[in-house]
Design a protein that fits this description.
alpha/beta, Arc Repressor Mutant, subunit A, Rossmann fold, five-stranded parallel beta sheet, 14 helices, 5 strands, Homeodomain-like_sf, RpiR-like_SIS, DNA-binding transcription factor activity, RpiR-like
């Protein structure tokens, strides 16, 4: 992929921040805090402001996927030119409920927008094909990621592939150990650093299953144990954790995968939907 076609510059910086060493981390934090200033700085000036070396900045640009500092600045500039004004602000105790609603909605829209820039079409296509061909799908999520796993199960049960959502760490590793080749484990972990989720993926791989992860951090431990990695993005504020605002982005990725698989299994989906409507109708007045 050409450098000048890379999008989501700031989202990429946020994504790799936890995995950076101190010098690169200092530069990354300065970029996130002063994006409007960066596009007007030479690499020498940025090195001075960030109290770092030019070589460190160049390494960071390469780590982000750019050929050099100029390519990075071009991508950053396109990131800053938005058709809609960014009105993201911190929620304050004096805000009215309507103002809070506006800020929460804006935060969610930004999470979706940032995540869309991180979507890799090849990874998405590979995930859709892998799920379509799976003999069984197991969705794993713990804590705040558990509802995402349940939502995925709620959708994919309709496409005619045996699937389940497991939100208990013991059941995850037990089930992973009993999987057969052809099965797929789809793990959701915002931080990508949950020990239990990583262990479940390792166990699933040893059993011959294909592993997919959905996370905010591309350099996290969970990605090392995943055959396919899908990324989401979000921002943290005083009253909403980063994980909270990432949920809507992760749900949208799940929706995209479901629609993609559904198009490949249209006849089965339509038949199953009719069966579901018939049985659910009996539970309504």
């Amino acid at each position: 992929m050409e450098d000048n076609h890379l999008q989501g510059c700031l989202a990429r910086v946020r994504g790799i921040l936890p995995s950076l060493k101190s010098a690169e981390s200092r530069v990354a934090r300065y970029i996130l805090q002063n994006p409007d200033q960066i596009i007007h700085l030479s690499i020498t000036e940025l090195a001075e402001f960030a109290q770092s070396a030019e070589a460190t900045i160049f390494r960071l640009c390469k780590r982000l996927g750019y050929g050099g500092y100029q390519a990075f600045k071009i991508s950053l500039a396109s990131d800053l030119v938005k058709p809609l004004q960014n009105i993201h602000q911190e929620i304050t105790p004096d805000d009215t409920l309507l103002t809070i609603a506006a800020k929460v909605f804006q935060s969610n829209m930004e999470a979706l927008q940032d995540t869309l820039t991180l979507v890799d079409e090849r990874s998405l296509e590979k995930a859709v094909q892998t799920l379509h061909q799976a003999t069984r799908i197991e969705f794993y999520g713990l804590g705040g990621s558990a509802p995402i796993a349940m939502d995925a199960y709620h959708k994919f049960i309709r496409v005619g592939i045996p699937c389940i959502a497991l939100t208990d760490s013991h059941m995850q590793v037990i089930s992973a150990r009993l999987l057969q080749p052809g099965a797929v484990v789809f793990a959701i972990s915002h931080s990508g650093s949950n020990i239990d989720i990583v262990q479940a993926l390792i166990t699933a791989r040893q059993a011959g299953a294909v592993t997919i992860c959905l996370t905010n951090y591309p350099k996290s431990p969970v990605t090392k144990e995943s055959d396919i990695c899908l990324l989401s993005s979000s921002r943290e504020s005083h009253y909403r954790s980063e994980a909270m605002s990432s949920r809507i982005a992760q749900l949208s990725i799940i929706d995209t995968l479901f629609v993609g698989v559904s198009l490949l299994r249209r006849d089965i989906l339509l038949e199953n939907l009719q069966k579901i409507r018939e049985v659910i109708a009996l539970k309504r007045y």
